[in-house]
Amino acid sequence: MVLLGINNLINNLPFLFEGLGVTILLTLISVALATLFGILLAMGRCYGRQPLPFIIYIYEKVFRGLPLLVIFFLIYFGLSQQGIHLKAFYAAVIGLVLHSTAYQIQIFRSAISAVPDGQKTAAMSLGMSKLKTIYYIITPQVLRFSIPGWSNEFTILLKDSSIAFSIGVVELMARGDAINSMNPEGILYVLLFIAFLYFILVFSINRGLNYLEKRYRISGYAATSVR
Amino acid sequence: MHMLEVKEIHKSYGSCEVLKGISFTVDKDETKVIIGTSGTGKSTLLKCINQIDPPDKGEVWLDGEELTNLSTDMNRIRQKIGFVFQDFNLFNHLTALQNVSIGLEKVKKIEKEKAKARAFDELKNVGLEKQAGQYPAQLSGGQKQRVGIARALAMDPVIILFDEPTSALDPELIGDVLDVMKSLAGKVAMLIVTHEMGFARNVADEIIFMEGGNIIESGSPEKMFNNANKERTREFLGRISCLYGKE
Ligand SMILES: Nc1ncnc2c1ncn2[C@@H]1O[C@H](COP(=O)(O)OP(=O)(O)OP(=O)(O)O)[C@@H](O)[C@H]1O
Ligand SMILES: [Mg+2]
Q1: Domains of chain A by start residue, with CATH
Q2: For residue A100, which of A43, A36, A46 has the smallest C-alpha distance?
Q3: Is B41 in the pocket of ligand 1 (CB under 6 A)?
């Protein structure tokens, strides 16, 4: 029984790793886009002129209030009914980005407000334009302050990507499901292995970003004073 | 022609008029001290001068250019106006040296190596060459403020505005900062908001007394301390000298 299960797992390893590749690709594309939009919209929320901050606020509230599954179904099945047929993979990217951006705005916004206003005044008093002030003074500090929250969001997005299986993206979880329906014996070992892969990924992301956080910590600045 | 000319400045926040028509001038390399009770609009006045918080009415002129004119490029003008803050406002992610050099590199576009060398010289002048590589969080208040002064000086300003530069400091650290400021007197124009009466008496060319958004009286330290015209001036200086008069 155990032998059979492990045998089944080994036979299916290439099949699983292909799924893992899709999971990683889906996560990386989505996290990159959501980070870009998260930063831009957080800036818009903090520095933009009304009604921009208000619109961003509404966006944030709406997408933080919806389950990811609902977002996926709306984008994939809902849009399809309106004649917009997206490939499942792209629908998943859009869904994850919409969802994660809403959370990342919050992360970057609180990091922006952790930079004392006086530093902006000081930079402008040196003759820096608003843009230079944001680029050289605000952003470097915001990025440092947001590493802990952002790495947390990164791992959540990785785990959430498994829900893409529900609209037919053939990622890691979908491969597990396929193995189950073809050959249910020993599926426990396949699923445990999938869980293990997720765990390893999350663990390495946290490790890597922890290192980054330490490396770029502002000397003498207690991490607790900014969170 | 005066170097800095402030003409009939008015400034309100909401329905509260903070500055009610302030006029004065500062000449090249002159030191003027502004005194007045809390909430009188001294900080507001300084921010009106470099247009960080532009006045509602009135004019500010520097070296023959009108700063209150909206078409004036303030990013260029502000390089000539140093600003030293009560709570330092150093850039926390940069070392002392980088705090001083960043304006040279990114605003004046001076080559990195030259900017660093110049910044190091400025730190040396305020007695902080050993702290060049330290971050603000690793400096004492007095050291932070001297970095703040070095940062302003590095830009070769024609005038430096000081907003209560020593009032956030422990008494034993105030002396170092005042010494640096004293050493600048006569080399660059300074407009200083402070309660340090000993400093004002010894260093200022003129003392301006503000209250309720107006200038009540101004004159040489000699006149202001010994025979001010207004009863209110004598009263204020008497009280404040008791509190901050010690050298
Ligand atoms: N951004 C602002 N919005 C609204 N009111 C303000 C603002 N800045 C200053 N004020 C008000 O303007 C008045 C003058 O403030 P200001 O900071 O210029 O006084 P000050 O003379 O520098 O006082 P202090 O000696 O305490 O520093 C105060 O009543 C203050 O509440
Ligand atoms: Mg003030």
Answers
A1: 2-216 (1.10.3720.10)
A2: A36
A3: yes
Q: Which of A112, A119, A121, A126 is the best mutation test for B, with the most CBs of B within 10 A?
A: A126
Asked if residue B39 has its Cβ within 6 Å of ligand 1, the reply is yes
pLDDT one-digit tens code per residue, A115-132: 999 999 999 999 999 999
Residue A186: phi and psi, rounded to 5, are: 70, 20
> If you measure CA to CA, which chain A residue comes closest to B104?
A126
Ligand nearest to the CA of B38: 1
Crossing angle of the two packed helices A172-182 and A187-215, in degrees rounded to 10 = 170
Tell me how far apart the alpha carbons of residues B209 and B35 are, in angstroms, rounded to a whole number: 5
Using a CB–CB cutoff of 8 Å, tell me whether A141 touches chain B.
Answer: yes
DSSP state of A66: S
B12 and chain A in contact, CB less than 8 A: no
Mean pLDDT by 10 residues, chain B (247 residues): 94 94 95 93 95 95 94 95 96 96 96 96 94 94 94 96 93 90 94 93 94 94 91 88 62
CA distance A36 to A34: 5
This model of the complex carries an ipTM of 0.91
Q: Lay out the sheet containing B57-62: strands in order across.
A: B16-26, B4-13, B57-62, B65-66
Cβ atoms of B217 and B209 closer than 8 Å: yes
Smallest Cα–Cα separation from A99: which of A164, A172, A53, A44?
Answer: A164
**How far apart (Å, rounded) are the C-alpha atoms in residues B83 and A121?**
10
**Which of B87, B107, B138 has its CB closest to that of A128?**
B107
